[in-house]
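Lab notebook: predicted structure, single chain.

Context: the supervisor wants predicted structures on file for every construct in the current expression panel, including those that have not yet been purified. This is the next one on the list. No modifications to the sequence; it matches the entry in the shared construct table.
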Amino acid sequence: MHKKKTAGKRSSQTAIVKGRLDISKSGMGYVIVEGNDKDIIVRPNDFNRAFHGDIVRVQVNTGMSKDKRQEGKIVDVAERKQTEFIGTIQMSRNFAFFIPATEKPIPDFYIATDKLNGATDNERVVVKLLSWDKTEKKPIGEVVSILKSEDENDMAMKEILIEAGFPLGFDADVMAGVKSLESKISREEIKKRKDFRDILTFTIDPVDAKDFDDAISIRNLDNGNYEIGVHIADVSHFVKPGTLLDKTAYERATSVYLPDRVNPMLPEKISNELCSLRPHEDKYTFSAVFQITNRAEIKHTWLGRTLIHSNHRFTYEEVQDIIEKRDGLHHKPLLLLNDLAKKFRAERFKNGAINFSSQEVRFELDEKGKPIGIIVKESKDAHKLIEEFMLLANRAVASYVSKIKVNKEPIPFPYRIHDTPDDEKLKPFAAFAKKFGYTFDLHDEKAVASSFNKMLKDVQGKPEQHVLEQLGIRTMAKAVYTSSNIGHYGLGFEFYCHFTSPIRRYPDVMVHRILQECLDKNLKLDKKMDERCKHCSDRERKAMEAERAGNKYKQVEYMKNYLGQEFDGIISGVASFGFFVETVLHKCEGLVSVRDLNEYDDFRLDDADYALVGMRTGHKFRMGDRVKIKVVAANLSKRQLDYEWVTENKGIGNSEFGKKGRDVRGKVQVGNKSKPGAGKKGTAKKKK
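Prediction complete. Output recorded below exactly as produced.
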């Protein structure tokens, strides 16, 4: 029997897609779906309990005209961006409301009196979302922390973490589970592991580190070679799949390093006690053990679970002193390891790795967390020693897993990949570098890497060093996690993963588990690997944003001490709205606004020359140029500095400004404006 057609009507077709909800200040929502050119409009009444930043499923009408903007309704929240919020308590007689402090529209929370945890009317607090189901008109929350107004610095750091979606603490259920973990080394577990406790083993870490997640062992073999073990804290022994602890670690996916604190991925009992490879304690580890010749040739590799006993805890500074003096505790094995590391490094660059190095800024803080000094750290041989052996272990694990197939297909695995430079960024950079006499061979990837290394070597100590190093870094793609391996261009590796820092990175925990499955020949293929990789990459990016925000706050807090003082700076970036300046002494970055400069000339951006150019005078403000600035204001709440640019009577070039000797000033701003590569690393941590 045929259905009767209805004239004048068009059947409505719908589809459910997944994306991230972006709520504008006006309250309108837009769901950003990967692969879609246009966002999906969602009206406020159709948010269905979703907050800004949440990953949502949205029902879209697919029967609409292609020219018309798609609209949809959110059917459920797949993943919350954040579960903790900062705001103010408003008390009623029998309950309280929580008013979130955010630019994005978020409904008030209902707080029961037994969930106030000591908070009183108008106090600034951190509230955790407990539930918001269909039966509840408002989100239900609980106060987890009261923010004291006298500690402005502490409040600012907590706000940065919460805005990035990182909880400030761990739930009581998680802590109870951690408390029950057994720290004693069991005989049963010893039988499953290779015992390295009698072999010389030590750790090398930053002076303020507490979570020692890697150690190195070394001994001579009868055949004249060396056995060198890279031993990594066996986090997966304690963090079991499917547990509440594992779920919490995955949601965070990374530790966050702010200038005055670490917001850890795992509770301190695990990161600083159970898993930390502290000296003179037996510890469970997962290891990559290499038989190496004195010419740095790898003759054999063994991977598996081990037991170690660290003989000594070194700081980087102590090891650097031993390397330079060629004397001190365990100086012979340390000098041997340093010699091998240099050979590994030279081989990497020969095979296409790029020799980018970045300065690390660390803040000296007083007992209240206020910055009293800024230290610019450089990577020395001690750092490079550890880096090379960690790279060796990471590469060995990825290479081993890559060879294992199921039905002739590679197994799902979180590779760490780094794509080749983008031509759209590389070509203008090569043209810019040529103005300084540095030529680039762009005919293939290896030639590009070779050109970069030659430039980085030749530019050392020259005026253009800073600008070319910074611009060169910006041509590079971002490294991410994915199960689709394309290699790591920057390191010159065909196979690479993260294995060496499971205390602070969740992908390393996944790598440990999969590696053990491979060794046991008991594979449990993870069909959600791509989703997990994307989540970890996203969390890593959010952590980096939080770290940059923390550093900018400390820069402003520090520069408040220098109002009215002048400093030398370097132009570190240009844009149509002005140019960025970084002080030479403090590495504090800001923006000279083009609005102030336009009083003296009409400045326009010259993309090809990375410069602002005066249309009348021809004066250029180009990346790498030195300028002098005066500190005039510092706004902590906006993480914003105001400088004045001060011209000098000499060294100003051929502009009319220099000839007339005018005192031309412009304002510099740090914070809300963004620029690729802006911001420096704060609290020290290893780069592996």
